[in-house]
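Lab channel / #folding
Pinned by the channel admin:
"Please post every new chain as: sequence first, then the structure tokens as a reply. Keep commentary short and put observations after the output so the thread stays searchable."

First post following the new format, from NK:
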Amino acid sequence: MPLPAIREYAALVREGTHPVRARLDLLRRHRERVTEQAKELDRCLELVSHKVAMYEEHLAAERGDPLWTGTCLTGHGP
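Reply from TO:
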């Protein structure tokens, strides 16, 4: 939870039991942010997993570096 939201939540708690609805709303917004962050992390994990699989396949087939094209910008080899 971002620091401003933590401060807002703490202030609501100090007010007592009346702002329960406000605390609930704040926690729901936080849950939405965390859910979106988790989705983004899942997308990143899928990409990394794809790259790992690509490298594993190339190494298993002894094809060498899957990103090496055989040319170098300097023209001097790898």
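NK: Residues 15 and 38 are 32 Å apart (CA to CA).
TO: also worth noting, The two ends are 47 Å apart (CA to CA).
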